[in-house]
Amino acid sequence: RALRGDARDAHAVLRRAEMPAIVVEVGFLTHVEEGLRLILEPYQDRIALALRDAILAYVRGQGVRTPTARLR
Q1: SS3 content of the chain, % helix, strand, coil (to 5)
Q2: Per-residue pLDDT of the chain (72 residues; tens, 9 = 90+)
Q3: CB 53 within 8 A of CB 63
Q4: Measured between alpha carbons, how far is 36 from 43 in angstroms, rounded to an integer?
Q5: What CA–CA distance (Å, rounded) separates 31 from 9?
Q6: Closest by CA position to 66, among listed 58, 22, 51, 13
Q7: Which pLDDT does position 46 carry in this prediction?
Q8: How many angstroms separate the Cα of 1 from the Cα of each of 8, 21, 26, 68, 70?
Q9: How far apart are CA 53 and CA 51, in angstroms?
Q10: 14 within 8 A of 23, measured Cβ to Cβ
Q11: pTM of the complete model
Q12: CA torsion, ordered 58, 61, 2, 8, to nearest 10 deg
């Protein structure tokens, strides 16, 4: 899926980071249905858990040993 807006902005954030970094787009507040879901805490929790699980799966797949890899 194509990035909305100027993709160079997101890449600049990543290039300037002095530590491992990612940019994640989780939804659109301006979308009628999605915007309503995004303000609900249970939905935010689901997003946060999915991001956590994805990061942990990546870290474990790379054989990286960090405090983050021991969260579970």
Answers
A1: 60, 0, 40
A2: 445 555 556 677 788 888 878 888 889 999 999 999 999 999 999 999 999 999 889 888 876 665 554 444
A3: no
A4: 10
A5: 22
A6: 58
A7: 95
A8: 16, 20, 13, 29, 32
A9: 5
A10: yes
A11: 0.63
A12: 70
Q: Name the nearest CA neighbour of 59 among 51, 50, 68.
A: 68
Q: Which pair of structure tokens corresponds to residue 55? A: 């990061």
**Single-letter amino acid code for the residue at 42:** P
Tally of residues, the chain: 72
Residue 27 falls in which region: left (phi positive, over 0), alpha (psi -120 to 50) or beta: left
CA–CA separation, 26 vs 32, rounded Å? 15
Closest among 72, 51, 54 to 62, alpha carbons compared: 54
Distance from C-alpha of 12 to C-alpha of 15, rounded to nearest angstrom: 5
**Pair of tokens at residue 56:** 């942990």
